[in-house]
Amino acid sequence: MLRGKNRPERHPGTESLRPSAAPGSAAPGEHSPATRTQSNTEHRQVSSSFRDAAIAPTTGGQDPPSPRCPKPLSLHVRVRVCPLVCGLFCSASPLRLLRTEARGADAVRLPGRRSSCSCVRVVPGSGCRRPHAQPSTRRSEEASTHSFWMLARDTARLLRVCVWSVREENAGAFPLQVKELFSSLGVDCNILELDQVDEGASVQEVLSEMTNQRTVPSIFVNRVHVGGCDHTFQAHQSGLLQQLLQQDLAYDYDLIVIGGGSGGLSCAQEAAVLGRKVMVLDFVVPSPRGTAWGLGGTCVNVGCIPKKLMHQAALLGQALTDSRKFGWEYSQQVRHSWATMMEAIQSHVGSLSWGRRLALRENAVTYVNSYGEFVEHHKVKATNEKGQEALYTAANFVIATGQRPRYLGIPGDREYCITSDDLFSLPYCPGTTLVVGASYVALECAGFLAGLGLEVTVMVRSVLLRGFDQEMAEKVGASMQQLGVRFLRKFVPVEVQQLEKGLPGRLKVVAKSTEGTETMEGVYNTVLLAIGRDSCTKKLGLEKIGVNISEKTGKIPVNGEEQTSVPYVYAVGDVLEGKPQLTPVAVQAGKLLARRLFGGRSEKCDYVNVPTVVFTPLEYGCCGYSEEKAGEVCQAENLGVYHTLFWPLEWTVACRDNNTCYAKIICNKLDNDRVIGFHVLGPNAGEITQGFAAAMKCGLTKQLLDATIGIHPTCGEVFTTLEITKASGLDITQKGC
């Protein structure tokens, strides 16, 4: 510790830290900087923000908080910084970590001097020169915050046992207790004293926001945040502490995620925030038409994001038509430019993909654009586009490779047809289009293509939207027919021939009836296949390490914690057997998985009552059971199905059909009329469904809906006035607003 003239001047309004003698001021063995005494010239000073930040002691009954780094962090944390020594950290006052009495093969030796105390003390150093003062800007503040976060995270990575605390005489009996505990286990205890440095306040603020723990000490073991003193002793009693200390550090990484989609990236970044060394392997195999994309997976590049934007483009076309009824006059012919739309959408998609790469870099996640394949236990081979190979090992793996569109396996399908992998970056207008399939992808694509003014035909093998409520599915189809979409029911293609080359060219499709020997032919500019998706699990080498894969679906069965048949291999996202194939589900599952693996948390992903929306021209939103599934689970006689048609106010002046939009809820009579199914077909169905999904998580009942006052005039208010049941047979058609 610096003394005499080298000691920094006292900052106005700061005081020394001492634990309060009052009982109950902090949990046993933990020191809250909110309790303080008068200034003491023998102690270094810390800012009031440090004292104010650590006021709530943790209790033994709580789960240890997991490290986090919310962005943006609190403004008062953000201060100017400069590079630190050791090439690791940054601070306005250069810091260095003094490592003393390092023992053991895995001990980290840092520059410094020995002392009789086994600790790492954060003290002022002279290894860096102060930069000239710079004007305070938002960018420099954010960089400073990130630098302090890097300090906390990287220190936890370097040291096997890392304890952020205050000077021993301020911390009471804690140092002796913890040091004796780890000494009994033959492990060094590295204590970093925050009150011995000017910037300790800022580091403490970042630690608080990373870990959700606002007290010191804050203890990390092998990069896992254990919690405070009480949590550490509880972990020792339960055996968790010994498990953490015995973790094999010989692997290259703590976690390797195979797949750079939403679920994989969520898991990787959360694990990195929790102090783990993480790698992401991601390689997009080009489609048969040669389409490939960057980091971010299906949702960002060829799924949710570009789909919703093209859906919006189509809605704007309908809005132009409606606008004349609202008094807008325009004499020019309105035309849509596919090239302009595609350029704008791809520009946005590219920015999102780049943002994912930047986020990995900021979280110190290693990203390798290579195809990952297991070669043996705990080891994968990564092959890049040039065929160059590299081997990596990890203690844990997460499979998040997602799915890719399925092909028909008929002559001409791979040569001449496109899929959603190609459509969202197609450089030319597809022209007259045949959409093969009746999935939500098929209907969404058909819907926005028709909305852009193209002639669209949908070829359906059996039913629309298999797995969804079939009454709602048929209403979706009927609404699309009103917009000019043609449906060919009970036919499947058997051959695709090229009649004329070009962009888009001309194709002949030969189709056969599923109910007889009838055949038919049609000529189209583009054939879009949307008949389902196959899981990307067959070429990962999973069989070499014993991971079970469903022979029928190619998906990976997992337990309630996303763990496969091999204990150190996990899976999230669309590769899971029997789980919703939705981006938010994958994101949530990936984040919670990382917290369970590395943060000492226990929360699991809830796959029940997951809301979703089909972005057809008239959107269909749902949450919970379909009417068919509810009948299977609860028996039809135990259900109360309330429904109505409704007429959005915006449609009245535009003279659009007054009996197209539809609302339905399914209630379980045996469970206090709890709402177990929610369905809405109408404008902005996604926005409506999201709110009611939260209510269903809270146990929404029909009585609660009836007691809710609606917002008038909105589409959502219809659910607060539902009175007619299907069983009553009463008329639900609308005559006015």
From TrEMBL:
- Compositional bias ranges of the Polar residues kind: 35-49
Q: Which cofactor does it need?
A: FAD
Compositional bias segments (type: Basic and acidic residues) = 1-13
Q: Where is the FAD/NAD(P)-binding domain?
A: 253-590
- InterPro entries associated with the record: FAD/NAD-bd_sf (IPR036188), FAD/NAD-binding_dom (IPR023753), FAD/NAD-linked_Rdtase_dimer_sf (IPR016156), Glutaredoxin (IPR002109), GSHR/TRXR-like (IPR046952), Pyr_nucl-diS_OxRdtase_dimer (IPR004099), Pyr_OxRdtase_I_AS (IPR012999), Thioredoxin-like_sf (IPR036249)
For molecular function, the Gene Ontology terms on record are: flavin adenine dinucleotide binding; glutathione-disulfide reductase (NADPH) activity; thioredoxin-disulfide reductase (NADPH) activity
Question: Which portions of the chain have biased composition (kind: Low complexity)?
Answer: 19-34
* Keyword Flavoprotein listed: yes
- The record places domain Pyridine nucleotide-disulphide oxidoreductase dimerisation at 610-721
**Pfam families for the chain:** Glutaredoxin, Pyr_redox_2, Pyr_redox_dim
Show the Gene3D superfamilies listed in the entry: 3.30.390.30, FAD/NAD(P)-binding domain, Glutaredoxin
- Report whether Chloroplast shows up as a keyword of the record: no
Cellular component, GO annotation? cytosol; mitochondrion
Q: Which residues form the Glutaredoxin domain?
A: 177-226
Q: Where is this region: Disordered?
A: 1-49
Enzyme class, first EC level, given as a word: oxidoreductase
Q: Which UniProt keywords apply?
A: Disulfide bond, FAD, Flavoprotein, NADP, Oxidoreductase, Redox-active center, Selenocysteine
Tell me which EC number(s) this protein carries.
1.8.1.9
Q: Name one GO biological process term.
A: cell redox homeostasis
- Protein family membership: Belongs to the class-I pyridine nucleotide-disulfide oxidoreductase family.
Q: Which PANTHER family match?
A: GLUTATHIONE REDUCTASE, THIOREDOXIN-DISULFIDE REDUCTASE
Q: What is this protein called?
A: thioredoxin-disulfide reductase (NADPH)
Which species is this record about? Ovis ammon polii
